Amino acid sequence: MAEVSGVPGASTGSATSAGQVPELVEVPELVEVPEPVEVPELVEVPELVEASGASGSAAVAARPADGASASAPTLRIDARDDRVVATLDRPDRRNAIDQAMVDDLHALCAELEERPRTLILTGAGGIFAAGADIAQLRDRTGDDARRGINATVFDRIRHLPMPVIAAVDGFALGGGAELAYAADIRIGTPRVRFGNPEPGLGIIAAAGASWRLPEIVGHARASELLLTARVIDAEEALAWGLLSSVHESDEMLGAAHAIADRIAANSTRATILTKRALLAPRGDHPAIDGELQAELFDSADKRARMTAFLERKKK
Question: Which residues are catalytic, by number?
Answer without folding.
Answer: 178, 198
